[in-house]
Amino acid sequence: MSQYSKKTFVWIAWMWMIFLLLPSFEGVHEYTKGLDPSWCIALKVAIEDKFKFGQDFLFTYGPLGFLNTGYTPDGFIYQLVAFLVHLLIQVGFVVLIVEIVKKSVSKAMALFFAGLCFFPYRFVGDLSFSLLILQIGFLLVFLQHKKIYSLGVVTIITILAFFIKLNLSLAMLVIWFGSLLFFGLRRYLTIKFVIALASTTIVLMLILAYILQTDIMVYLSSGIKLVDGYIDAQAVMNDINGIRLVLALLALLVIVSLFLAICWDYLPFKANNKDLMADRFYVICLIAMSLFLSYKQSFASLSSTNLYGFFLFFPVMIGLILLVENNKRIQVKVIILILCSLLFRNIIHWSWSKSNLKEYVFSALPTAKRDLGNWQHRKSTLEGIGTFISSSSAVRFFTHSFDDEIVTYTKADSLERAFPKEVNDYLSKGTVDILPWEISYIMVNKLKYNPRPIVQTYQAYSGYLDSLNAQKYQSATAPDYLLYQEFPYREQYFFWDEDRTKLTMLANYKVVDTLAVKQSVGYDSLLVLKQNPNKKDVKYNLTKKAVINTFEKIDLPDSAELLFVKFNLKYSLFGQVTRLAFQPPYLFVNFVYDDNTVERFRVIPSVLKGGVIANIKVKSFSDAMKFFNTGGLKNTKIKSIQLDSPYQWGFSNTTEISIEKVIF
User: Which of 397, 447, 632, 657 satisfies CB 3.0 to 4.6 Å to 432 for a cystine?
Assistant: First the structure.
C-alpha cells in the first residue's frame, strides 16, 4: 500500500473521532426521579458540598464519578475536567484505531471493522469500561512498539479510573502493577524504571485523593466490602428468563468457544520460543480478564439492557488483538467473532424495536437503549439523521457543557414531589435524609440534604456498611429530619436491609408527621421523623447461640423485645464456583406469622450475616408506621423463620446463628 493511501486511512480514522466520538459526554440538563437518578444526584451534591469520600460518602462511584453519570457538579472547573478527560479518551480510541489500521494485513478491512468495533463507545452507560479498554489497548501498544508515552497514558487512565468507579478500578490497578512487573521481568523496562512508575502512580493517587477530599484508605477498604457484597445483593434476572435465558447462555457459549479457538491459534503451544509464548500469554490474559469483568458486570444483574451492554463492549475488547497480531488466519477469526457479537447485539436491538423495521432504523445509530425513544418518533429518516449529527457535534458539546443553565426537575416530576408549605416550613429549619433512596423529594423542595454514608438502603448490604449508616444517625452530625418510605423491592424482604440503622432511628427519632403526596396514579406515603434531643445507645443482649442445619426451621422466642438474628452463612464449594462463574445461588426465607399464615421472600446472605430484625413483620407503610411508633409492639409477630433455596447444594450444611434481644 502506498504512503499516500496509508495517510488517507489515518485521516479517515481522525474524522471518525471528530464526527462520531468527540461529543460522547454531555452534562445532564434535567433531573428525573427514581432509583438510579437518586444516587447520581446524591453523588453530585456530595462533590459540591465537599463531602469526604470514604467517610461522609461511600459508594461504588468516587469523586470523579460524575464523568460517568453526566450529572456534572456546578462550577466551570468540573465542566473543564469533564471535557479534558473525555477528549483524552476520544483521542486514545482513535490512536488505537490507527494502530490497528497500520498493523493489519488488509488495511481497508481493518479500518472497517475498527469503525464497527469502536462505535459502541457512544454507549456511555459505563465510561469506566472504556477506560479499561484504553488501559489494555495502550499496554498492548507498548508491548508492540515499546513506546514509553503509552505507559504515561496508562498511568493517567489508571489513576482517573480509581476516582471514577471504585469496583472496576481495583481490577485496573492489578492489571497495571502486574503489567509493570511483567515488563520488568521481560526486561522491556529496567527495574529502576518499574519502581519509578509504580511509585509515581501511588504518589499521584495520594495527591489527587487530597485534592478530591478522599480518605483513600477507608475509600479503598470499604470499597472492597461494597464490591464483595454487590455480587450477592444485586444478583437478579429481570426480563431474562425461560427461553431468553437459554438463548443468552447459548450466545455466550458461542462467543466463548470462538474466543478459545482464537487462543488456540494465537498461543504457540508447540513452539520453542519462550519469549513469544510469554508475550502472547500476557495478551490473552489481558483480553480474557477484560471480557470476564464485562461479563460479570452484565450477568450479575442480568437483563436485556445489561446483556446489550456486554455485546457493545465485547467486540471492542476482542478487536484489541488486532493491535499485536498480523497473522491473517487469526485476524479472520477475530473478525468472525466481532461479526457474531454484532449479530447478537442487533438481535437484542431488533427485539427492543418491537420487530418494527422503521423503529429499528431510527434507533440504529445511537447504541444505547435509552436513545431509542428519542429516535423512533422522528417524522422521517432524514430528520433522524439530522438530529443525530446535530446532537453529535463538537459545537453542541461546547454550547451545552459550559452554559450556566440551572438544572431542575421537569414540571410533572416537581408536582409529584412537592410538599405542602407548612411541611417545608419546618423541614427547611434543619437537615434532611431520606430512606430508602428517593432524593428528588429533598431536591424539589430545596431542603438541606444530609445523607448517611451509604446513600441508598439496598446498597448497605452487609453488617459493616449498615453500621456506618447507624453510626451517622448516632453522631453529632445526624440529620435533624428523616423521610421514610416502605415499599417492595424486587422479590426481597426489603425491611431486612439497614436494620442496624433502623434500630438507631427507633432509638433517636420519633414520628412527627405522615405525608400523602399525590402522584399521577395514587399517592406516595412518607413518614417524617424528627431527631430526639437525647440520644440513646442500642445494645444487643445475646440470648442464644447455636449451630443448626442451614435449612432447619427456627422457632423464635415469644418476646416483647425486638430480636436481632445473625446467620454466619457460608457458600459450599459449588456455591462459590457458581457465584464466580455466573450468579450466587438464590436464597429465600419462609415466615410463619402468629396467625399461622406463611410468606416467602428472597434474602441476601451478606445481609443475614450482619443481622436482621427477625420477629416482626414490616412489609407496608402501615407496618412501618407501627414499628416506628410502638417499637414493633403492634406489628404482626413472626413465630418462626426457615431458610430455603432451590439450590441447597450451594450452601454449607450447617450454619452458626445468634439471637440477640435489642435493648435501648
Answer: 447
Among 180, 183, 176, smallest CA distance to 161 is for 176
DSSP letter, residue 124: G
Q: Please give the distance of CA 161 from its chain centroid, rounded to a whole number.
A: 13
CA distance 195 to 421: 62
Complete DSSP assignment for 470-514: HHHHHSTT--SEEEE----BTTB-GGGTTHHHHHHHHHHEEEEEE
Residue 434, helix vs strand vs coil: strand
pLDDT along the chain (664 residues), means of 10: 57 61 60 86 91 90 88 82 81 82 72 65 64 93 92 95 90 96 94 95 95 91 83 82 77 85 77 79 92 86 79 85 84 85 80 71 50 48 55 53 67 88 93 94 93 91 92 94 90 92 95 91 91 89 92 90 94 92 92 93 93 93 94 92 94 94 90
Q: Which helix (H) or strand (E) holds 174?
A: helix 166-185
Q: Are the C-beta atoms of 268 and 283 separated by less than 8 Å? A: no
Q: Do the bridges between strand 408-409 and strand 431-435 make them parallel or antiparallel, or are there none, so unpaired?
A: unpaired
Do 545 and 635 lie in one domain? The reply is yes
Do both 120 and 188 map to the same domain? yes
Q: Which of helix, strand or coil describes residue 479? A: coil
Neighbouring C-beta atoms of residue 230, cutoff 10 Å: 18
Distance CA 231, CA 236 (A): 10
pTM of the model: 0.87
Q: Is residue 403 part of a domain?
A: no
Q: Which of 314, 342, 370 is the last residue of a domain?
A: 370
Query: Residue 454 sits in which domain range?
Result: 411-531
Same domain, 153 and 79: yes
- With cell 492489578, the residue in question is 174
Residue 379 domain-assigned (yes or no): no
One domain, residues 599 and 455 = no
Which residues is 484 bridged to in the sheet? 435, 527
Do residue 613 and residue 514 come from a single domain?
Answer: no
CA distances from 107 to 102, 314, 315 (A): 7, 22, 18
Q: For 167, what's the count of Cα atoms within 13 Å in the CB-facing half-sphere?
A: 18
Assess whether 441 and 500 both reside in one domain.
yes
Could you tell me the CA-to-CA distances from 477 to 39, 216, 433, 453 in Å, in that order? 21, 22, 12, 12
Same domain, 340 and 488: no
